[in-house]
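Propose amino acids for all 178 sites.
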């Protein structure tokens, strides 16, 4: 009887082991599938496979939010340029360059491209910098506030671009494995 008892106790006493590394103690379980994971196998709250899936699910949403942030400043400038044209003025040279972040925004939305996100955000900030300089030399300092407000979206897009790069790298690793 003692023997049976020992075997049972042995079974229940066993520490949970990592599903991938049988020699390592599992410290946590994956928040998605419940697999036992050792410290090195756990990516944030998920096992490696689930982390990839979670990232892949997040990719379109993140890309969309970056695309929107990239769109705000160019739309404002395209709109104000059209207004400017409608009033019989000539289009300022700067207006043409706003097509770059505009195109980048479309590429990010359709292809989730981190390169397009970086290009769009950086070019927007450079264009706003140029705009600020133009206003400053023209003595229109009051309008610098508008430029500063318009800079908020590309700054957020910059942050989003870095997030997108990380997600994209993870998903690519996952696709290479499977
Ligand atoms: Zn999992
Ligand atoms: Zn492990």
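Proposal:
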């Amino acid at each position: 009887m003692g023997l049976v008892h020992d075997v049972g106790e042995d079974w229940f006493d066993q520490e949970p082991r990592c599903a991938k590394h049988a020699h390592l103690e599992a410290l946590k379980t994956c928040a998605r599938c419940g697999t036992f994971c050792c410290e090195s196998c756990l990516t944030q709250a998920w096992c490696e496979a689930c982390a990839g899936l979670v990232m892949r699910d997040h990719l379109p949403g993140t890309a969309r939010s970056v695309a929107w942030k990239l769109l705000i400043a160019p739309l404002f400038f395209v709109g104000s340029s059209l207004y400017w044209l409608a009033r019989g003025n000539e289009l300022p040279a700067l207006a043409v360059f706003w097509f770059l972040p505009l195109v980048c925004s479309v590429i990010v939305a359709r292809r989730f491209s981190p390169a397009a996100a970086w290009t769009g955000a950086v070019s927007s900030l450079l264009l706003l910098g140029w705009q600020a300089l133009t206003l400053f030399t023209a003595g229109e300092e009051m309008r610098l506030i508008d430029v500063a407000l318009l800079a908020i979206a590309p700054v957020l897009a910059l942050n989003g671009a870095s997030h997108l790069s990380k997600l994209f790298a993870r998903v690519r690793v996952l696709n290479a494995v499977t």
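DSSP finds six helices and two strands in the chain. Residues 7-51 form one domain.
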